[in-house]
Amino acid sequence: MCDGDSAHTHEHSSARPDGARLSRRRVLQGMVALAGITAGLSACGPVRQHLSASTSLPPRAPNAAGQHAYVLGMHLHASASEGVGSTRSQLLQAAAHGFDVAWFTEHDWRRRRLLFRPSYSFLPDEQARDGVWLVPAVPATGPVTGDSGGQLVTSPVSPNDPATSKGSLRLRATSAGSTAATVGHSVDSTTYSRLNYKARIAGRTVSIDVLPTTAGPDAWGEVSFRLSRHPASGDRPEGVISMVYRLRTDVSATAVSRNGTTGTVDVPVTRGRWQTVAFDLTADVARVWRDIDPRDNSLNDIQLSAVSRRRSPAELFFGYLRFDEQVDYDGLGVEHALLTAYSSDVPDVLGLIGTEISLGPHINQYGGPQKPYDYGSGISLADGLGEIRNSVVDFIHSQGGLASINHPFKPGDASQDTSPRAIARDLLSIGAGGADILEVGYGLKGGGDLHDHLALWDTLSRNAIFLTGNGVSDDHTGHNWDTQVNRFYTGAWARGRTEADLLDGLGRGRVYVGYLGSFAGTLDMTVDGSVPMGAVSVGGKTPRTLRIDVTGLPSGGAVQVVRGVVDYAGVSTPDPDTKVLTSKGGSDLQSTTEVAFDAGDDSFVRLQVVDGDGKVVAFGQPTWLLRKAPPHGVPAARRTSA
Fold first, then answer.
1. Phi/psi of residue 278, each to 5°?
2. For labelling, which of 8, 396, 477, 523 has a CA lying 20 to 30 Å from the CA of 137?
3. pLDDT at residue 24 in the model
């Protein structure tokens, strides 16, 4: 339900091979009327997007095999992870940009709140879960006098805190004028604590002890929580919502109000004594905004403040911050419930749930039941889980899922050396852990650009390690997908838009990758008319013919045929051995779409699309042409006798 109880507008539809409705918005995608179309995505008011005709993907024709290309937004984070993206904001971004699927992979340990810190006693060196929390000052708002500020103290402290050693945060604020001024400190859980309070607000409450010593109608304390992004509705603009709790000694009853994206709760407190204030964010968001599902919010930031106006001094002490977890909380169940609730709001996008298993190296699970991976006993947030990549991949396979090696150039996921050769050597040493997918379409994580990701992938392909290269965003914001540096998408050729069909396409390598805003077409190829993209052909003839199927070639761009040698060079030569066999522009493809070449002893071929400046904006999967089967065999999904 929305503020104002606006009615949902149903769109005209026509038949579609996967049984889903092909809405009128789909037919009109790519036209200048996008602003009006996206406004129709929310019954609660306009959804303010940063869109242009070039960044909304158009409808896609089937390939020669009768399959359709379904565009997947992969590796998406929402309100169970750190960041301000909500499930709804991500779904709306997917719909507005013409995506068919939003595949969520929330962090497993955040979903489970594993190794989250239960309490904080406001000591500067207080360790818990192998990490230290800090309370740095944030810039003051409004002019304050020189004696305003904040500091950690060891007296007074809350009598409720059971810790042997404990402290409190003293905050003082006196405005230098008649307008309100604020002195604040934030709760910083970075470094080895790994932001271990940032996750969904559902299933937990936050409490803090407070001692107001100087307060009144013009002086009070505040506790602020920054949550998640939601679309515009009624009098609320699009943006990240916040809840602000004003701790007032001059009120006798709780009062709730709102202004734009901020909800405010006035909480009565008593001056001169310690007291506990509990914050049920889920309940209070529901009280403030009827159109927001309160479960679809992540707790991103906590700020403690003293507020003064009309030169009235405010002083208070904060102590014993704690997080109370609901024993039977089902995080995965909430994710399923949210997707079900939003299915009518965003009918053109199929929401799927995966998992990023990420307490150690980050590996995504796509498909299968999303059961918790067992990290064993004695684990911590600090580095030192050991080599668990093979174990994680085996676990994913045991559930019937596909395993993806995420952002391979991120420091700490494999090696601190993030050069392409070092990453290749590391993955070669473990056979890529037996994974099925490698994030190749990924921009600038740990220094590896697209060229480096392609070189790494080609090196693994050189060693007959069969990995589907996908494209992802790893977005945590749910906002302006088209302006992000990392805006890769995956196009999967499949019979239908179901999880099973999409997993089949990913497992077979029947996918291509594009860069949103630079490539809006499709990409496919066939060797000798019977060997599809992504397959492994063992035996067969050496002279080969490759058929190129590409649409939406950028102006001035071309499609290139890349051939790589397969010689099992291993860790001693962790480099690709590839070259561009030919490059064909739009006019070339009008005359012929076939390329004859010599496969040689063992090789692979793949396609990539470059724009007018020669930058790669899309790529397809390798097809391996081998004289004999590799020592480690060929996955059943990729085998072909041709």
1. -105, 140
2. 477
3. 33
pLDDT digits (tens, 9 = 90+) for 423-444: 999 999 999 999 999 999 998 7
Q: Convert 252-275 to b/e letters by CB count within 10 Å (16 or more is b).
A: eeeeeebeebbbbbbbbbeeeebe
pLDDT at 419: 87
The two structure tokens encoding residue 560:
């290139």
Over 70-114, what HEC string results?
Answer: EEEEEEECCCCCCCCCCHHHHHHHHHHCCCCEEEEEEEHHHHCCC
Alpha-carbon span 355 to 406, nearest angstrom = 12
Contact yes or no for 78/296 (Cβ under 8 A): yes
Closest CA to 641 of 276, 629, 632, 631: 629
**pLDDT given for residue 585 in this prediction:** 96
- pLDDT tens digits along 521-574: 999 999 999 999 999 999 988 999 999 999 999 999 999 999 999 999 999 999
For residues 489 and 101, what is the distance between their CA atoms, to the nearest angstrom?
A: 10
Give the pLDDT of residue 416. Answer: 65
Q: Which amino acid does the sequence have at 577? A: D
Q: What is the DSSP letter of 285?
A: H
- What amino acid occupies position 6? S
- Which residue's entry shows tokens 């604590």? 193
Q: Dig out the tokens for 224 from the structure.
A: 């602020």
Q: Directed axis angle between helix 331-342 and helix 87-96, to 10°?
A: 40
What was the pLDDT predicted at 381? Answer: 87
What are the tokens at 300?
Answer: 């991103």
Encoded tokens for 416? 């601190």
Q: Which two tokens stand for residue 105?
A: 């992979």
Q: Are 392 and 357 in contact (CB under 8 A)?
A: yes
459 and 625 Cβ atoms separated by less than 8 Å: no
d(C-alpha 204, C-alpha 110), whole Å:
13
Q: Which residue has the tokens 């400190």?
A: 185
What was the pLDDT predicted at 40? 34
Which of 479-482's residues contact partners 24+ apart within 8 Å by CB, and which partners?
Answer: 479/84, 479/85, 479/89, 479/93, 479/229, 480/49, 480/50, 480/93, 481/55, 481/73, 481/93, 481/94, 481/97, 481/516, 482/50, 482/51, 482/52, 482/55, 482/97, 482/516, 482/517
